[in-house]
Amino acid sequence: MVIIGAEAQALAVAWQVYQITHRALALGYTGLALFLPGVLLILPSGHVADRYDRRAVVLVCYSLQVLCTSALLWFSWHGSRNVWPIYAVLALIGTCRSFSGPASSALVPHLVPKEHFVNAVTWGSTIFQIANIAGPAIGGILFTLPLRGKVSGASAVFLFTLITLAGYLVLISMLSVRPGRMEKRATSTDVVLAGFHYVWQRKILLGSISLDLFAVLLGGSVALLPIFAQDILHAGPRGLGILRAAPALGALTTSLALAFRPIGRRAGRKMLLCVALFGVGTIAFGLSRSIPLSVLALMLMGGADMVSVVIRSSLLQLATPPEMRGRVSAVNSLFLGASNELGEFESGLTAQWWGAVRAVVIGGIGSLVVTGLWSIFFPSLRRADTLTAESLMAPDVPAADVNSESERLEQPIA
After folding, report:
1. At a CB cut-off of 8 Å and minimum separation 6, what does 408 contact?
2. Is the CA virtual torsion 55, 56, 59, 62 positive or negative?
3. Are 20 and 81 in contact (CB under 8 A)?
């Protein structure tokens, strides 16, 4: 429910900013505003997720997001033509996400049995993609409804988002699972930095997270969809809603297939192949001049990314000890934010330099290059086979080094 509201809100904000500025770089700044807080707060956010009740952290963060959406609604009601207050609100939303992301991600393994975790990730991703389809579509329809007065255009979308946020808070408050405090040691530099150290040590994690970072960072085109919808495909706000929903439609189709036929062997090779397909879809979208072909290209991108998401999410949780999942998830959130929000800034900046079409095509080519390089640089990722904790917890470094490091981290702080 909350993802539907968030996606509808993202569409409204992007269209509003582009209508005010008519600049590709202004769209890029929306991603930068969401990303920067995650960089600044990555260490405390991961530590908070491991030290405090993760359910309570999620509740506080989404309560603050209610205030953020209320501020966007107020700007819309008063017809503000200044984008900087919008960027300020997006930065606060990014701050909330930097804390809620690691907490909610680390909470998932406590909700399902270990043997059903990969299937749970797949079904969760399926529901997520349904929301990603419905959100932009609903946002585009609400934005163009012939309403009068202040409750029209972006205001209608923000009111809808407030309703979804309220519903989400009610559902989270009803959860009975309270894993509580996982990290027992006092705060120290070693404790806070343990997530970075663990990811760096486990090359399979480093490879999978960084592959997504650079491939999506270079191949991201979502931030430029308002430009394609208005200036290239001449489709308007509803066309933008269709384009925004297309990747999620491809991801939904793929996730349903994965739910009934889960990923079995050669998970690493399949991830690399799907990232390459993501780059191919990006190039096709950049060269397209018709709505049907653009939708098909975006669906290919979404479907390929879905496989990558399931494999990466399984690697992240199954190859990480429970007491460190918050900090490792925070590292993943930083990389994920860099690939998405920073990718939006990169897309806006390169589109400002080269034009939207060239920026997307060159980015797709860059994604293909990254895939080839990562298959060489991270052989442990390429050789990853089954998605089980026993298989994925096999050390990438000599066992003695892993054991000594685990013993060091487990020592109490005087």
Report:
1. none
2. negative
3. yes
Place of tokens 């966007």: 72
CB 32 within 8 A of CB 345: yes
Average pLDDT, the chain: 81
Q: Do residues 204 and 392 lie in contact, with contact meaning Cβ atoms separated by under 8 Å?
A: yes
d(CA 88, CA 80): 14
pTM of the model: 0.66
Mutual angle of helices 236-260 and 117-144, in 10-degree steps: 160
Q: Which of 188-197, 200-209, 312-321 has the lowest mean pLDDT?
A: 188-197
Query: Token pair for residue 413?
Result: 């702080």
Task: Write down the pLDDT at residue 300.
Answer: 94
Distance CA 175, CA 192 (A): 28
Q: Phi-psi region for residue 329, left (φ > 0), alpha (ψ -120 to 50) or beta?
A: alpha
Residue 244: the pLDDT is 82
- Angle, nearest 10°, between helix axes 291-318 and 325-337? 160
Predicted pLDDT of residue 389: 62
Exposed e or buried b per residue across 147-163, where buried means at least 16 C-beta atoms within 10 angstroms of its C-beta: eeeeebbbbbbbbbbbe
Per-residue three-class SS string for the chain: CHHHHHHHHHHHHHHHHHHHHCCHHHHHHHHHHHHHHHHHHHHHHHHHHHHCCHHHHHHHHHHHHHHHHHHHHHHHHCCCCCCHHHHHHHHHHHHHHHHHHHHHHHHHHHCCCHHHHHHHHHHHHHHHHHHHHHHHHHHHHHHHCCCCCCCCCHHHHHHHHHHHHHHHHHHHHCCCCCCCCCCCCCCCHHHHCHHHHHHHHCHHHHHHHHHHHHHHHHHCCHHHHHHHHHHHCCCHHHHHHHHHHHHHHHHHHHHHHHHHCCCCCCHHHHHHHHHHHHHHHHHHHHHCCCHHHHHHHHHHHHHHHHHHHHHHHHHHHHCCCHHHHHHHHHHHHHHHHHHHHHHHHHHHHHHHHHCHHHHHHHHHHHHHHHHHHHHHHCHHHHCCCCCCHHHHCCCCCCHHHHHHHHHHHHCCCC
- 213-264 pLDDT tens trace: 788 777 777 778 889 988 899 888 788 888 988 888 898 888 888 878 878 7
Do the beta carbons of residue 181 and residue 115 sit within 8 Å? no
* Percent above pLDDT 90 for the chain: 25
